[in-house]
Amino acid sequence: MNDKQPKPGDEPRRITDLGTLKAFGHPLRLKIYSTLRVAGPSTASQLAGQVDEAVSLVSYHLRKLAEHGLIVEADVQSEDARERWWQAAQDTLSFRHEDFKDTPEGVAAHAATVRTLIAQRDEQYKTYLDQQAAWGAEWRKAADQSDFLARLNPAELTRLNAEIHALIKTYEEQGKAAEAAGDTAGRENVAVHLASFPFRL
């Protein structure tokens, strides 16, 4: 009997409770969760090597993520049935300021989590910049870093974000379908970071 929880796949999850947000927002847990999303099912020892931390510490944080349903156990991927494998519980995870705005603790936890995510994304991009020569001319030409300025109202910004998200999702699905059909040549993980927000001078 398999008592592992199945991965919901594309079923999105929105974090709305403070306990889960605080559990998710820990810097190392964010890194572990992100690694599981990219690498797929992994053991604590594999993750420890990828995030450069002790196995015991990674195991502790995996349990905390599991307590809040952010990760679930995966089917064993090796011949050693004693190994415990983990996977992200969902492909799409979100959290919004509006769900935490009513308490100072909630506002602080939301801001801290967003800042940690931005710092980790910044680190990821800097790593690419440091290594871009090794990627070759084709990937360097395809990669992009752009900045746009638009005069919008909130409804227009909401619509713009929805359209961008839908377009990226289309490419995600096309990539998955192509790989499933055996078209794997030249494919790599691609990070698309989007930030859209109002500002005044």
UniProtKB/TrEMBL annotation:
<dbReference type="InterPro" id="IPR011991">
    <property type="entry name" value="ArsR-like_HTH"/>
</dbReference>
<dbReference type="InterPro" id="IPR051081">
    <property type="entry name" value="HTH_MetalResp_TranReg"/>
</dbReference>
<protein>
    <submittedName>
        <fullName>Helix-turn-helix domain-containing protein</fullName>
    </submittedName>
</protein>
<keyword id="KW-0238">DNA-binding</keyword>
<dbReference type="InterPro" id="IPR001845">
    <property type="entry name" value="HTH_ArsR_DNA-bd_dom"/>
</dbReference>
<keyword id="KW-0805">Transcription regulation</keyword>
<dbReference type="Pfam" id="PF12840">
    <property type="entry name" value="HTH_20"/>
</dbReference>
<feature type="domain" description="HTH arsR-type">
    <location>
        <begin position="19"/>
        <end position="98"/>
    </location>
</feature>
<keyword id="KW-0804">Transcription</keyword>
<dbReference type="InterPro" id="IPR036390">
    <property type="entry name" value="WH_DNA-bd_sf"/>
</dbReference>
<dbReference type="InterPro" id="IPR036388">
    <property type="entry name" value="WH-like_DNA-bd_sf"/>
</dbReference>
